[in-house]
Structures are given as C-alpha cells and as structure tokens.
Specification:
57 residues; mainly alpha; 72% helix; elongated
Length: 57
Amino acid sequence: MLQEASTVNEIAAKYGISPVVISRWKSEFLERAAEIFKKGPSLGKRNWKKKMNEWLS
C-alpha cells in the first residue's frame, strides 16, 4: 500500500475493511514512522525502567 501497488479500495475489498479505516491507518503510520523506527528504547520501556528504579530505590 505504501508503494501504492493497489488502491485503497482494492485493499479494503480484499480484507473486508472500510477504505476510510485503511486511509486513517496509513496517515497515522506516515505521521509516526520516524518515531516507530528510531533507535533506542521505546517510551513504554523508558517509563517501565523509570518505575522500576523508583520502586527499587
């Protein structure tokens, strides 16, 4: 889909998903792609480590 080999409507029909939902997923992914693929611990992992350090202190 990111390469647009198929249209949103074709993908929606193939998987039985609304074209609006697929478009929304694509938009959200493109907005957050840099965050998803950046190196280093995720926000969840950083928060978990912070909490563990607080509990162990």
